Amino acid sequence: MTQYIYNFGGGRADGNASQKNLLGGKGANLAEMAILGLPVPSGFTISTECCNDYFRAGGKLPDALYAELDAAMLKIEQFMGKKFGDPKNPLLVSSRSGARSSMPGMMETVLNVGLCSATIPGLIEQTGNPWFVYDAYRRLIMMYSDVVMEKAEGVEPKDGMGIRLHLDMMLNDLKNDRGYASDAEITAKEMSALCDKFKRKIVEHLGVEFPDDPREQLLGSIGAVFKSWNGKRAVSYRRIEHIPDTWGTAVNVQSMVFGNMGETSATGVAFTRNPATGANIFYGEWLPNAQGEDVVAGIRTPNPLNNDTKSDHNAHLPSLEEAMPEIYKELAHIRTTLENHYRDMQDIEFTIEQGELYMLQCRVGKRTGTAALNMAMDMLEEGLIDEPTMVNRLNPTQLDEMLHPVVDPDAAKSAEVLVNGLPAGPGGACGQIVFTSEDAVYWKKKGKAVILVREETNPEDIEGMRAAKGILTARGGMTSHAALVARGWGKCCIVGAGALKIRADLKELHVVSAGGVGSGSGSSGAKIYKEGDFLTLNGTTGIAYAGKLKMKDATANPKFKQFMSIADKYRVLKVRANAETPKDAAQALEFGAEGIGLFRTEHMFYGVDSEKPLFLLRKVILSKTPHERQMALDELYPFIKKEMKGTLEIMDTKPVTFRLLDPPLHEFVPHSRETQEELSKELGIDIEEIQKRSQALEEVNPMMGHRGVRLGITFPEITRMQFKAIFEASAELIKAGKNPLPEIMVPVTCNEKELIFTKKLCDQVYEDVIKEFKSCSGDQIASIPHQFGTMIEVPRAALMSHKMAEHAEFFSFGTNDLTQMTFGFSRDDIGSFMNDYIDNAILDADPFATLDQEAVGSLIEISVKKGRETRPNIKLGICGEHGGDPASIEFCHKVGLTYVSCSPYRVPVARLAAAQAAINYKIDRY
Amino acid sequence: MTQYIYNFGGGRADGNASQKNLLGGKGANLAEMAILGLPVPSGFTISTECCNDYFRAGGKLPDALYAELDAAMLKIEQFMGKKFGDPKNPLLVSSRSGARSSMPGMMETVLNVGLCSATIPGLIEQTGNPWFVYDAYRRLIMMYSDVVMEKAEGVEPKDGMGIRLHLDMMLNDLKNDRGYASDAEITAKEMSALCDKFKRKIVEHLGVEFPDDPREQLLGSIGAVFKSWNGKRAVSYRRIEHIPDTWGTAVNVQSMVFGNMGETSATGVAFTRNPATGANIFYGEWLPNAQGEDVVAGIRTPNPLNNDTKSDHNAHLPSLEEAMPEIYKELAHIRTTLENHYRDMQDIEFTIEQGELYMLQCRVGKRTGTAALNMAMDMLEEGLIDEPTMVNRLNPTQLDEMLHPVVDPDAAKSAEVLVNGLPAGPGGACGQIVFTSEDAVYWKKKGKAVILVREETNPEDIEGMRAAKGILTARGGMTSHAALVARGWGKCCIVGAGALKIRADLKELHVVSAGGVGSGSGSSGAKIYKEGDFLTLNGTTGIAYAGKLKMKDATANPKFKQFMSIADKYRVLKVRANAETPKDAAQALEFGAEGIGLFRTEHMFYGVDSEKPLFLLRKVILSKTPHERQMALDELYPFIKKEMKGTLEIMDTKPVTFRLLDPPLHEFVPHSRETQEELSKELGIDIEEIQKRSQALEEVNPMMGHRGVRLGITFPEITRMQFKAIFEASAELIKAGKNPLPEIMVPVTCNEKELIFTKKLCDQVYEDVIKEFKSCSGDQIASIPHQFGTMIEVPRAALMSHKMAEHAEFFSFGTNDLTQMTFGFSRDDIGSFMNDYIDNAILDADPFATLDQEAVGSLIEISVKKGRETRPNIKLGICGEHGGDPASIEFCHKVGLTYVSCSPYRVPVARLAAAQAAINYKIDRY
Hints:
Two copies of one chain form a homodimer.
Chain A: E1 5-9, E2 12-13, H1 20-35, E3 43-46, H2 48-56, H3 65-80, E4 83-84, E5 90-91, E6 93-99, E7 109-113, H4 120-127, H5 130-151, H6 163-178, H7 188-206, H8 214-228, H9 232-241, E8 249-255, E9 266-271, E10 283-288, H10 292-297, E11 303-304, H11 320-323, H12 325-342, E12 346-353, E13 356-364, H13 369-381, H14 387-392, H15 400-403, E14 406-407, H16 409-413, E15 417-420, E16 422-425, E17 428-434, H17 437-445, E18 450-454, H18 462-467, E19 470-473, H19 481-489, E20 492-495, E21 500-503, E22 508-511, E23 527-530, E24 534-538, E25 543-546, E26 551-552, H20 558-570, E27 574-578, H21 582-590, E28 596-600, H22 604-607, H23 612-622, H24 626-650, E29 655-659, H25 673-683, H26 687-696, H27 709-714, H28 716-735, E30 741-746, H29 752-775, E31 787-792, H30 795-799, H31 801-807, E32 810-813, H32 815-823, H33 831-839, H34 856-870, E33 875-878, H35 886-894, E34 899-902, H36 907-920
Parallel strand pairs in A: 4-5, 17-18, 18-19, 19-20, 27-28, 27-34, 28-29, 29-30, 30-31, 31-32, 32-33, 33-34
Antiparallel strand pairs in A: 1-2, 1-3, 3-8, 6-7, 6-8, 9-10, 9-12, 10-11, 12-13, 14-26, 15-25, 16-20, 17-24, 21-22, 22-23, 24-25
């Protein structure tokens, strides 16, 4: 027969910490603490299996449970020296939920179970505190009638109001009638009378009597906790957190202890180390004569646990160390016991009842990134944990905060939230609003810090984006122009803040609430901010604040490099960076990049300090005859070569993957009258003609239009120019004794013949350059080592990988586009429906942020398999935005890629995620 | 040892007609005719294997060939009683190419091989016609120096001019000097002198002597024919026709016979039945005293073969039947022999040399669609062929011409081509140019036939498109708005005619030549057509002509229905039609549709006669509040229900698949000031607000934007309205004793949860309708039979088909979108690069016209497999444009789909293609 109940208390327990699946997190840790001999109020856990059986039986406790329950209660009574339902010395218990993983506040709790007309007098006599007893009874009635009698029974409130609301109103009426400010002013007699009134209301409202039998209360509360597993809130939470419905919850029935029974009673929470800094000190807060929820509620300022915890706010209050030194010593000992046992920082809850310490909970404590890093390194040094464990202790995304200055969290608490957007560029930034790129540059020259606010950005905004401390846009997603540029630079940026209406004409920013379809309306009732007003952006959370907020300088932790070098020992995946200037490449190297996995030729045009290259590219694009075009290409050539050469030089001996010009030409077409006029002058044609040529390049769906390799097939001269730049830059470096390793990557391919076509151009230019460098400088350059490969970013290319691999020495998965085309989602347009998709749980996550492993992943797996069938040693990488996402990196490790590539500031994140993947998933590498 | 040479002649042959792979089509049929005892000039075929060995050896005839060649020549000499190189009685031969499948004019031929200084006198003596002999020698020199000495040797012409051009100029100079109008006026002596001049020019130009040795000439001509397999023209042709390079060509060496040796000589071509009508008469033309090319060249009007072939043009000329009754009788007998043998209509070439009949070629004859149908039915009746053979005799695309009036091909020959575009809507149309929808309607009312010319069309042009005889657009592809609408109506339409510049403002049409990048320039030097000018469109070829061309009325062939019903017996795939009005559905039924596979709710808005529904849809779209929207939906509802009900009624007992609203709402937004004003009045908001709301709906990549099921998730009220219309229409029909079979299809899904969401809405509305129809009319409607399914048109949906099939009772492959997303090709934008892709052989065909079986096909196969794993009896269809393409239909049959769906006018094509697929590919059906 299945055992449903697992007792704990008195130095022993039926279960232990390893049984979280069966006992839930709370129950397993209570059992473990009991085994460790810690003072846990005696109790038992009813298993998650019982929960599943409960639902299987249609919401009925299994018959076999009853006998076990009686035996378990008997054990509690024995340990506690009290008796459930006893008129003289009654035992009270709580029924609390506890799932395998924490679902805070999502399920129900019933306290003070066992209080009834029979036990109240005895408890009054025992405690000498009738108010305390009636208040406890009041709480039981309120919780029980709500949770057990109404919700668990599925009673639809007659008048639309739940019983809880009725009782709350009655309690408030009483206080109003009497002019009381708090519950404490209610007399015991009044409280007792209120309990009677409550019970009458319950009969009236629910049609049943409040149960006066302790056993009935106990069974009711157990069933109600189980039932709350399928409550609305819990189900929604599980959807979001991907917790399976089949896990079920355990119920923990535990004898009640009270921290509010006088001056020798207290309650508190503590962390075994400082969760903010990681410092190895005991850190916590407590309140004398109080209940657990009082600490959390924040009505009273909690006392410091000890001297180490004292701060400006609480230094005047006595610490537990000072007030109850013996108890504190006992607690400090428990801290050591728990840390040695769990080998990780613990978050604990305790209650002191009339001088007696009880442990109510322990679990792994949440911590900041810095704390996580410091603790992990300390514990490694202390011999508590080994290296793989240490590497796993830091969530890769927590590295972010160590690499950028951040908004001071304390300052943020009291600040006015302006708007919520998408966290596109990390860190914090504070400055004055400007609305144009020109103004940003101008204000910066005057020594001001500015925040550039735009509807959305385009390449013409680059100068202003460079000049700004932070960027805020009303439109665009995580992979919009602003987001890509900002992330590449590691610049603070918030995009897609839809509640903003930007009136650049008026130099005003209106903040409105969201409208319906076609919501392009005016901004009546909006808050208005003007040029020069201060804003603070938190690019890590996507929240923009009004005004100037304090920033925290997050200088690199000295332990950071040491931690990363240990992580690197375990890593299998290589990590490269996406960069297109020598400056960015240098930054990437500093963060540990092992190559450039994506040099986007077109990014150069908005990455460099001069506007000249962009102007020349526009000339190329708007040229009409091949002759005009070749002239413009010749002018553009030195700029391209310079950036390529500089990047190859910086990355010496490390590979640099050059992606050929990719985006629709129309993206670079000039929209401003000024630039149009300048081009008109340069090209010697009138401005109407410039506008006409620009219009001719417009496309209905540019993302699936004339771009990538398609440009190189219609305009081979543009591709040839790039090959020439790559090979001449390399040849010059080789002559200078360097070791450039260029890799040529063809974008947006769908067909092996596109590769054949492009490879032929490449080979021709290569031969020309080799000849040229032979003839002018003797015989020193026999060859330029290079590789030729392709992006896999179109579904067809993935499906045809056996053919693509015939001509490509490497594949790089462009998961941004692959996601767009696999889903049929334009990343620029998902704003209109993505929220509804997430809200309705149709998608678990934005697939542009985290790789869709099911379908996009299956295309990658097909591609890897087919590619290797043709070319067993093919090099495989990923260079989409997902290259910096830990979950996606784990996937890349599992499918056996060679490297991931991400923006420079994500390189440490990727290194750590790759190390953790290698530790947690051993795979057979090809 | 491999046998390279296969002799034929004298009633026997080494090869036969089944050996086309080895002997080429020409050689195999020559052998077959020889075996049949027909008078074939003796000769031999050098096999395609020899061709491959020739290239394998780097362009050298295999050593083993020489001995075989000598033996083979000896046999010809014996049969012909002449000797190769003999001064008295010389044998002349021809060397002709002949590949497995016909490549007309793509490879080389050398005639009169064996003429040299040694044999000329003997031949003159034999023929008594020195002019004839020197003219033959002149031809040999011109052909041989060009084909063998220059091209095959890869000689680059020194002065950029080939030898052929030089010799042509010399011949012309001679005629000009003498004032001769034709070659015939040149004297024998002059001709002889010209030959000598030719030979000197050859030495001067090519640096080698013209060979005077017959054997050298023979070997040279054989090598040159082989070499021409890899000539530029032949290679390009093979790319286009998908002929593998490995096939190689055979060489046919055959003794020369001359039809120009006097009045008892002649030459002719004939078909064993009439290739235009299929009538069972012997049909052909001949010329006395002439060579083969004279018949083809069209300089002289050829004589009719017999009385049956006489026409207005040639009735005055003697027929062969009259001129040479014995020879004609012999030829008529051969006709019967060939038809009984090949059991198909043959295209033959013959030469009569001094009263002796020779057969030079026979092959299966090309024929019109009508002829193919009639012949096939006749031959079935005659017992020549069986039913499956008959069904295979008609190319499905040939059915097109039987269903639409067409441009008279004779008229087209001499007409001025205005522009080439894409053949978007079938048949022909002739009318006067108009530039706006309004004008089209107005002119039509005045009784004029008009051609509507537009940059591209949109829903606002519907009235004008209806009114026009034909539609011509400058932009858009085969699946653009104009193409889809026109094809749906079976209306003549040409789209994407890029050389047109349409100045609707001036009511002018400019035809220009293509420019470079950004070619949006003016139209200097363009031809200009104005409103009211006549145009003729051939929608089947995509050619537009200036002026009024004669049309041919192609009324339905009486044998058509009989033919189709025999084809249907063999068909396995069901054929449905895409239609969204009762009228179109009726048309589809008439063409044999077995259901509606695609009822596009949004097409209704431009398919009906009133503008009201479109106006109401615009109201829905531009509504801002849910209340406004619901009001507009309520107004729209009756229109939607009416079309749905009418279609269900017409299709009674046959399924109708309703696709929920699919396209981006922005497509329906009003662009004309007039409509905007009207909407502004109706909605009670100002016009600027209307414009703002419209702009807010604009998307960067609408094809991957807010459309399909995504609309239904953000605006469930729009989906609910459609469900209500479907179920209420069905319920009303059931009440009236009908049997509607609605199927609900969800578009643009990528995720099973989208189906769960939509199914829930569907079930709710279904229950409501069932309840409603129960309560108001007793208990007669217990249920409405219906199915719930999804399009598979997003790659992710295909990859996730195991999940999709959990909720979908059927899949319908939307191969238009699936192709777009699998390739990353926007069908609206491929114009800028598709030509370069085809020209560079990167793609064999436009994947929107013929299904890409490799990759898109593999997604379909994955989907079929995964879908059936979950739901073995899942219904599978295709409703993209490919549903009417024969090659794609064959693919659908092979992967085991249930049905294809195409526009009504394609239904017969699809039925025939499906029947042929079933006959040619037996598959295990699920």
